[in-house]
Amino acid sequence: MATHSTPILPPALQAHLRELVLPDAVAWSNYLSLPGVIEHTSWGDVSVEALQRQIVDHARSTRCRRWAIFDNDDQLLGTVGLNDIDIEHHRAELAYDLSPAHQGRGLATGAARAVIAWAHTALSCVRIQATVLDSNLRSIAVLERAGMQREGLLRGQGEGRAAP
Question: Which residue, of 24, 39, 102, 116, has the greatest Cβ tally within 10 A?
């Protein structure tokens, strides 16, 4: 597995990806804690401490990768990554979040596309899926723009999508 490579965002987005570091947890928690940000998601504890634990866990695991989406001033704009990476079965689950201050610029779509392409190339994944609540219309739109297709409805769970 290409554990040290990083997906590349298109230059037009004026943003980059890098590994998450512990100090990112403060900005990450700040925007995830804003009213409505995690309303239509499966997020639980978004405290600084919980996110720091998540950053450490991701750094130690081969089953998940998470990158910071940041601008030229190293300001955290969001995160994107893969959960449940299964090298044997060539699949993973896409996950992302974005600060409301930076939504509507194509960042989530661009980051999703970049991670999907990276997973196909670096990890030899043939299936990238995402699970989204059917009430999260903005995230559904991101996944559709990233080329994912709806596969079905998980009863009582949300909506499932998978990349080609």
Answer: 116
Half-sphere exposure of 85 (CA within 13 A, CB side): 22
**Distance (Å, whole) CA 24 – CA 11:** 22
Q: pTM for this one?
A: 0.90
d(CA 25, CA 120): 28
Is the distance from CB of 87 to CB of 81 less than 8 angstroms?
A: no
Distances from the Cα of 72 to the Cα of 14, 43, 75, angstroms = 7, 28, 7
DSSP letter assigned to residue 163: -
